[in-house]
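Hey,
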Amino acid sequence: MASILTIRRWPGCIVIWFMLVGPSIGNAADAPVVTFRATVSEVRLTFVATNGRNQAVEDLQRGDFAVVDSDVVIRDFRSFNHSSETALNTVVLVDSSESVMKQFRKEIIEVVSLITGPQWMPGDRLSIVAIAGAKEQIICADNCRSASAAHEVAALANGGLTPLFDAVTDTAKSFIDQKDASSRPVIILFSDGDDTNSNANFRDAMTAILRSEAQVYAVDLNNPKSPSQGTAVLQQLAEASGGRYFPMRDDPAKILGNIMGDLHSAEVVTYAPPPSSQPFHSVTILPTHNLNLQFRCRRGYFNPASLDK
């Protein structure tokens, strides 16, 4: 008697059909079907390690740190690699609404410097999205490291309402839909953090970011002497995702250098998530030997089983 083994992949699991097949089609129709299910899940955590002088640690070893996942200490990692081995999938969100009018020209100069700089690797993808009006607008997608893309950014008009939370949420959801393990999702957000025209709210944006595993690097366009509620929004989005927040008073070249330095010096570790009935796992990375080491990563993740709900 012959046998046929069929494997099909579904989100979060592998379903295997093993069918015993007789010598004729009629017998095959009566043959029993046995289904085996195995859950397949893995946490991928991108982080930056710095020493006591706030410098990136270049020779970090897997024994130098442990992950605390919802009070469970993880030392048994499936993989530990330098982030340069993974291409970047970066979306730059450019706030071109009326509220950033005073800083708009300076913002555009910084964005153009970012997309035309030499720091990108051959496999990196870069998209530009403008935030203004009724809906965010895609300026260019995937391949925006060009003079033509820079020209389109420089020609952006300024004005209108600010659908900030919609733009962040939609961008994060696009990462979730793509779900490409060969690239790391990154959002570089130039904004004052104010939202005046979104269907989504701050909670929606934060949830989408954590589900997408994207790091957010936020450049605050507010006047540093007059912090606003938008400043707090930008800080929370960046810190919760494992990214960084930068006030506009910082030197533009230094801001861009710090962002790209982070992206190229980060580490990526993977491990099996500990059993838990909770939909959200909090995450912290702690040093095991050198207590001067500090680690920056996203604050948590959603249980892979909850992503299909």
